[in-house]
Amino acid sequence: MTDMKWTRKDLIGLEDLSADEILFILDTAEEFKKVNERRVKKVPVLRGKTVINFFVEPSTRTRASFELAEQRLSADIVNMSASSSSLSKGETLLDTAKNIEALQVDIIVMRHAASGAHQFLAKNLRCGVINAGDGAHEHPTQGLLDIFTIRQKKKKIKGLNISIIGDILHSRVARSNIYALLKLGANVTIAGPPTLLPKQFEQIGVRVCDNLKDAVENADVVNLLRIQHERQRASYFPSIGEYASVYGINRESIKYVKRDALIMHPGPINRGVELESEFADGDQSVILEQVTNGLAVRMAVLYLVAGCLKTN
Q1: Residue 264 near residue 234, CB atoms below 8 Å
Q2: Left, alpha or beta for 234 (phi > 0: left; psi -120 to 50: alpha)?
Q3: CA pseudo-torsion sign 201, 204, 209, 213
Q4: Which of 82, 172, 185, 285 can pair with 139 through a Cys bridge, CB separation 3.0 to 4.6 Å?
């Protein structure tokens, strides 16, 4: 682990972090992964701290992972949703957040459909703010757990060829991965229907490809994303069946994937669309390891943010 000191009271995204900061989080997560492998999986580092999980947008995996991470760190936890908050009565997001802060809360973990909501709150609150996903902007802890898993399996990030396939346009996961992977020296390719491939990523060094074979044949990691219908306001391709046949990993397309390549997916998987079940559950898949590693990564983020609050 480096000798650097964490100085941020918030984790809003990976675009603004340096390579050293990203590596510092990953190294800290390595220590918490060891905690999760012990017989007693609880440590007192957040004892006396209060964390609010404020999920304005629905979530299953991320919310459960954060809540369990907080429990493992001995924090006091309150869970809130939009329907149970004053947002449903017309209160502004900032007023709701300031009322939460007035209860002497230390950290707000929030998911919100509006891109930039977390950055706005972080500028107006003294407590820590952790982004659990904001619109199609970023999902930093998912990006971190993906990279943690890659580093665990491949022992490095620099020089790896990593392909991200699917709905890049609407994916906050893709953005967090791209920003961090480039900073750590990986070669990143994105692929999918041309209507779902933002061209601006070429300007920061991403290879853009609309052909699955070309995208995956030299890849060390293939990270598959689902089609996010809930964020789409138009039809971006003819049909799900066509998408699956052209961009899905199936018995035909798997022959283009190297035998030692990792197959990843942030979930939830649409089996038979972006990924056939035999490959989702196969030897190359690290999907469940991603889930396990997400717990250690979120413990690390909570620990670092809480530690910074002591000096703010």
Answers
A1: no
A2: beta
A3: negative
A4: 172
Tell me where in the chain the CATH 3.40.50.1370 domain(s) lie.
19-138+292-309, 140-291
Q: What is the pLDDT of residue 88?
A: 62
Q: Which one of 3.40.50.10710, 3.90.226.10, 3.90.1150.10, 3.40.50.1370 gives the CATH number of domain 19-138+292-309?
A: 3.40.50.1370
Tokens of 98: 């300031």
Q: Is 252 helix (H, G, I), strand (E, B) or coil?
A: coil
Structural tokens at position 55: 């999920």
pLDDT at 233: 43
CATH 1.10.10.10 given to domain 140-291: no
pLDDT for 234 equals 43
pTM over 0.90: yes
Q: What are phi and psi of 176, to 5 degrees?
A: -60, -40
